[in-house]
Amino acid sequence: MPELPEIRRSCNVVNHVCCGRVFTGAVRKSDVSKNAEVAFSAQQYTIRAESRGKEMVLELNDKLSAAGAKSRAVVRLLFHFGMSGRFQFSGKSEIHKHAHLKFTTSETPPNTLSFVDVRRFGTWRVLGDGELWGPDRGPDPVSEYTAFRENVLASLEKPAFNKPICEVMLNQVYFNGIGNYLRCEILHRVAVPPFSCARQVLQDLQQELDVKKGKESSPDVLQCCRDITQEVLNLKGGAVYDPDSTEGSSEENYRTFLDWLQCYTRSDAMNVRDHNGRTMWYKGELGPLVPKARKSVGKARLTTPPLRDVKLQSRAKSTVSAATVPATTTLKGRRNVGGAASSPTKTTVRRRSDGATAKSSVRAATSGAAIRNVKNQKMADQMVSSRRPAKRACPRVLARKKPTAGPETLVAAVTTVEHTQCPGRAVRLASSSGRVSSRPTRRSSRTKT
Fold first, then answer.
1. Distance CA 21, CA 189 (A)
2. pTM of the model
3. What is the DSSP string of 25-60?
């Protein structure tokens, strides 16, 4: 979210591009914006900008307005930038698709000053007569430092200062322009625990100011609100923490801003959510008012991103019938199935005494690559069935095979043909001796010899 340095930078950009230019026509609003229409139209008017904290005002001055005219000669538009608001000056063909308020110049070809807001949280409204700024904002910590300090210290008895100092610093009634990254940097550099009581921290400042009035001392929290904000304004290009911005050499300015940070999003810092759900970055102690159910959120920058979950890379789950699995209960490592060496597998089978279906987790490597994302039961069954022991060949199939040379094989083949004519008997061949043994089954009946 844009904070005081970003608003001040936008104000300077608008004044730079509008200096010496004349605008004409009506102020156009996009159809998708929910903000109010700006009822202003003039043949020739100029634009001037000024900022205060997180607010910015565009002053539209009609150059040809006659005395006693119905339309106002000067209109002040108050802007709140929201999460992604900014101003852009471009030609007609380069207007941003998320431009929601447009001011057109009278030059040829015409150019356009646009208020661009991708997320559409920004707002604007026309200020009334005698109204300079919004009613719920305090003085600017940089341009109005004396009024800013007096406003904070005169309000210490209010209930708002019972909260932690890190949460009070986001209250724009007292700390206008201070946002999330500025509060983290300020509290870190003055070594104040972020969840200390705001009243206790600021009362100490009042006492020190009374004792050391007129003497040099280390900067306190309120002085750092001015000094650290001024440091950001003095950075090359101002504060640019949007690397996708198209304004100048934004990538270089973005890196400059990251190098300036000492706490916010740093890899050696920690974070916790405050009572309002905002992420507070810190180093050292937290303070006594830390939330009970504190949570760390987000990722620190300049750290190696975590690897993807290995469970998504190589794991297939399937339900296997106990009748289709060998009687062995647990198999680990390499296992020979059907007399041949199989690929490295890990199979766990839990078999109940009543022979009911059990679940099995199968994890296998095929051709050196992990099997990924088994999406349906059919693929899982194919994986399991490929590792089942080979079934015993049917005697009828053996009878159709041509006997090879050797007396043992010839006797086995001839005996198989004779026994296949008796459907009530099961044939078992002994490959080593060539002897034939038969065993009656349950359904077999006595056969005549």
1. 43
2. 0.62
3. EEEEE-SS--SPP---EEEEEEEEEEEETTEEEEEE
Measured CA distances, 189 to 166, 219, 221, 242, 277 (Å): 13, 10, 9, 24, 23
Catalytic residues: 2-3, 54, 352
- Of 55, 43, 76, nearest to 140 by C-alpha is 55
Of 200, 168, 136, 157, nearest to 275 (Cα)? 168
Question: Burial, 247: exposed, middle or buried (Cβ in 10 Å; 0-12, 13-18, 19+)?
Answer: middle
**Of 427, 426, 428, 418, which Cα lies nearest the Cα of 449?**
418
190 contacts 204 by C-beta, under 8 angstroms: no
pLDDT of residue 411: 45
Distance CA 348, CA 360 (A): 6
The whole-angstrom separation of Cα 392 and Cα 398 is: 11
Per-10-residue mean pLDDT, the chain, length 449: 90 93 93 90 93 94 68 85 91 90 92 92 89 90 94 94 96 95 95 94 72 62 94 74 47 84 93 93 93 72 39 38 38 39 42 43 39 52 57 58 51 44 44 46 48
